[in-house]
Amino acid sequence: MGIVVVSGTGTEIGKTVVTAAVAAAATAAGRSVAVLKPAQTGVGPDERGDADEVVRLSGAVASAELGRFPEPLAPGTAARRAGLAPVGPGEVAEAARKLAAEHDLVLVEGAGGLLVRFDEEGGTLADAAALLGAPVLVVAPAGLGTLNSTALTAEALRARGIEQLGVVVGSWPAAPDLAARCNLADLPEAAGAPLLGAVPEGSGSLPPAEFRAAAGSWLGPALGGTWDAGAFTRTHAEPYGG
Questions:
Q1: In 3D, which of 146, 186, 188 has the Cα closest to residue 167?
Q2: Which residue from 36, 65, 185, 235 has the least number of CB within 10 angstroms?
Q3: If residue 79 lies in a helix (H) or strand (E), which one and from where to where?
């Protein structure tokens, strides 16, 4: 997996922290990791962006950002309102390939969901993944509503012939409610793909050294970690009829 695209089922669900965890696990295994953020929205010119945050938490060796737009909107909309050139899928694919030529792993972190528009032509993160032939890791929230958004994302990937690596819960609550506990068992079926991790809520506020030390315990072996989906589900899931 030289290039992995990380997409959420929506926005503000822990995608950046999951990307950082995957980067930290790969870095700990001795791999050179680069992070690519095609379009950063809602951040000023001198503020820390998502790619910067991934590097800070994970120790990844490189990051790149192709476009930055000040308003917290879909990339295409934010670019148009700012009077700036948008970032298209072809540009994303070209940048990812260049990074992959110099690094063992490139993580491409999207903005919001899979089909959020990047440009006026309707280009999306899915289009970039298809151009790259890269698998997509889906980040989903834990609670009510996640099964539908996860299933829709999976359907969109299948329709485009894009491989889905699996699903990671972006922010597992310290006190999960009934929906979150039931969703642990139901998410793999909704996604048609395995559950590959669960990152505890608040993990992004950990000091970098603590984050890096713990990251592998939040991710399954397919992502370079030691997390056991079966054991986690048996411990936390709500028994049917319970």
A1: 188
A2: 235
A3: helix 75-82
Structure tokens at 165: 């690596």
212 vs 160: CA distance, rounded Å? 34
- pTM of full prediction above 0.85: yes
Residues involved in catalysis? 37
Over residues 108-118, the pLDDT tens digits come to: 999 989 999 99
- 102 Cβ neighbours under 8 A, 6+ residues apart: 32, 34, 62
Q: Let me know: does 150 contact 187? Beta carbons within 8 Å.
A: yes
Give the Cα separation of 139 and 132 in Å (integer): 20
Q: What whole-number distance in Å separates Cα of residue 197 and Cα of residue 18?
A: 9
Rounded to whole angstroms, how far apart are CA atoms 167 and 184?
11
Structure tokens at 179: 């929906």
Residue 167 structure tokens:
């699903």
HSE-CB at 212 with a 13 A cutoff on CA atoms is 18
Cα–Cα distances in angstroms (integers) from residue 222 to residues 62, 110, 152, 186, 219, in the given order: 22, 20, 23, 20, 8
pLDDT tens figures, 220-230 = 999 999 999 99
